[in-house]
Amino acid sequence: MLRTFLLFSFATLLCLPGFASASSFPSLDGPFRFSLGTSDFEASGIEFEFSAVRSFDFQLDFGGPLQAGRKYRNEDLLEVRYRVSGRLETNPPTPSGFPAFALIRDESGEGPISAAEWVAQSSFLEFRIAPDADLLDGVQLSELAPLGKLDRILEIYAVEVGRLDRARYHPPQLQLFADGTGLLRNANNTSKDTGTVNPATGEEVDVDFGEEYITRLTFDPSRITVIHAPIGNPPPVPEPGTALLLGLGLVSLAAHRRP
Q1: Omega before residue 31 within 30° of 0, cis
Q2: Are 36 and 80 spatial neighbours (Cβ–Cβ below 8 Å)?
Q3: What is the largest CA-CA distance in the chain?
Q4: Is 68 in a helix, a strand, or coil?
Q5: Fewer CB atoms near the end CB (10 Å): N or C, the chain?
Q6: DSSP string covering 137-197
Q7: Phi, psi for 215 (deg, rounded to 5)
Q8: Spatial distance between the Cα atoms of 104 and 118, rounded to a whole number of angstroms
Q9: Whose CA is closest to 160, among 101, 201, 217?
Q10: What is the pTM of this model?
């Protein structure tokens, strides 16, 4: 009788909404850093469609937990740093009219971007960690789940509204796809109500995606780690649902073995 009751309870718990899914999503305490740069792609290949990005680097710090199965879009974001520099076309010239650019948004340049500023200017980082990702060795690109359209697994979209006289249209948009291809290009920027003008032309800023630079990327998703497991964190522990299921299973086994 006891065995039948326990088995029934076990099956009922499994059918509860969200119970089974919650138990399959391990997590690690924050903070954690999402990082990606030129060196991660150099072995696979970088192809310039026009203009040439010499180097780029993204570092975004999060304060919240690192959790498998979770989608991130600025949630728990603390601070953003990025660098992008390169050579621009001059014949015919790109809209900025400059032969090169170097946008440095970290401690060595114009300073990091706070989470509040990043969100206020409509910038975002978006990715989803697969439910079966092994968090103990960090998170590889191959462990990011498609976000839907075109099997996109990652997008970083940086905007510099109101700062375009210094940024010179060059904030980056990075998109990576599950098939091991990617696209790095300038973001879509306009003056909007800021009245910002291009110092080279005297005209208000109105630049579409990719008018300044476009760089295509190829890579092996399993060989690029974008999140290193936070140092000092213990291994992922079962969530309460998992622990309860395990306990019920042990009790059931004990009841089954009773004479």
Answers
A1: yes
A2: no
A3: 91
A4: coil
A5: C
A6: G-EEGGGBPP-SGGGEEEEEE---TT-HHHHTT--EEEEEETTSEEEEEE--EE-TTS--B
A7: -130, 130
A8: 15
A9: 101
A10: 0.78
Burial 152-191 (b: 16+ CB within 10 A, else e): bbbbbbbbbbbbbeebbbbbbbbbbbbebbbbbbbbbbbb
Relative to beta strand 77-87, strand 100-105 is antiparallel
Distance of CA 55 to the CA centre of its chain: 19
218 and 209 in contact (C-beta within 8 Å)?
Answer: no
CA distance 233 to 113: 27
Check: CB of residue 74 under 8 Å from CB of residue 61: no
Tokens for 148? 């839907």
**pLDDT higher than 80, residue 109:** yes
Tell me, what amino acid is at 151? D
27-80 tens-digit pLDDT? 898 899 999 999 999 988 999 999 999 999 999 999 999 999 999 999 999 999
- 205 CB burial (10 A radius; 0-12, 13-18, 19+): buried
Of 165, 159, 72, residue with least CA distance to 118:
159
Whether 98 contacts 168, CB under 8 Å: yes
